[in-house]
Amino acid sequence: MTTYLPVQITFDENPNCADAKMWDWLRGCTREGTLLIFDRGFYDFTEFAALMTTGVAWITRLKKASYRVQRTLTHTPQVVDQIIELGHKRGKAKPIIVRLVEIKRENTWYRYITSVTNPVELPPYIVADLYGRRWHIETAFGLVKRLLKMSYLWTGSINGIKLQIWATWLFYAVLIDLADTVANEFEIEAEKISIEMLFRSFYHFNSAYNRGLSDDLIAYLVSAENRDLGIVKYKPKSQQQDALDLSPHPT
Predict the structure, then answer these.
(1) What is the pLDDT of residues 1-20, one digit of tens each?
(2) pTM (2 decimals)?
(3) How many CB atoms neighbour CB 225 within 10 A?
(4) Which of 157, 187, 195, 239 is the 20 to 30 A CA-CA neighbour of 222?
(5) How many CB atoms within 10 Å of residue 26?
(6) Residues 68-77: pLDDT tens digits?
(7) What is the C-alpha separation between 88 and 26, in angstroms, rounded?
(8) What's the DSSP call for residue 70?
(9) % of the chain surpassing 90 pLDDT
């Protein structure tokens, strides 16, 4: 089951604290069997290896680094999938055995590394697709700061800031649950629901409620006469993606 809900939230009073340095906290709240997706700001061979020993898998983009190919799994004009020894030259960190997946889109190659070395478990195009979905967290941050106004602090006290953060993310979780319910009513994927337009539709529902026209939020949102609220995102055919290639060895 896919969810867009936050899993863990932490707070640090140090204004110079950087999330890329919070590996201890990450390991403490990540269970075995989890698949993490990192942007390239999180790039530490030692920490990657520590996650692997606890049964936690990960995907990230390849930065400039030395590596040695151990085995080629797939090699086509569009896909190169290899088992590599990453960081094999001398350095502070020990080299780690990972998988390098290279996908060509138009004239550009995109390179990913993952600790999942079996392509049957994680086919090449799935690696790329999952990494692309990493942007959902940036979308969530944008909605919370812009739409739910968390870019402005109500108070300068630590306790007040914590309360604001807790209340804002709690309301965000309610929005996500509501979006999931509305998507089920429409029988579509939750990602096709616009969180922003869903939030803005509360004003219209409140007006209808005060006039005695509706007392059921879900029924109001999915009503055919209210499709102009723009809750469902529709893509033109030109922007619709082809079916994802799920084969472990694309040809």
Answers:
(1) 567 788 888 888 888 888 88
(2) 0.83
(3) 7
(4) 239
(5) 18
(6) 999 999 999 9
(7) 26
(8) E
(9) 65
Please report the pLDDT score of residue 59 as a whole number.
96
| Structure-block tokens of residue 21 | 């340095």
51 contacts 24 by C-beta, under 8 angstroms: no
Backbone angles phi, psi at 72, to 5 degrees: -100, 125
- Candidates 21, 25, 68; CA nearest to 43 is 21
- Residue 103 phi/psi, 5-degree rounding, is -120, 130
pLDDT at 214: 95
Cα–Cα dist 47/63, whole Å = 16
Q: Report CA dihedral (34, 38, 42, 46) to the nearest 10 degrees.
A: 40
* 193 DSSP 8-state letter: B
Query: How far lies 39's CA from each of 20, 56, 89, 178, 188, in Å?
Result: 10, 16, 23, 29, 29
Place 92 in a pLDDT band, splitting at 50, 70 and 90. Answer: low
What is residue 21's DSSP assignment?
G
Q: CA geometry: angle at 247 spanning 246 and 251, to 5°?
A: 125
Which token pair is 44?
Answer: 């530490």
Reported residue count of the chain is: 251
Beta bridge partners of residue 101, listed in sequence order: 81, 112
CA–CA–CA angle 109, 114, 115 (5° rounding): 160
Distance between CA atoms of residues 195 and 173, nearest Å? 11
* Alpha carbons 219 and 66: distance in angstroms, whole number: 57
> Alpha-carbon distance 90 to 54, whole Å?
25
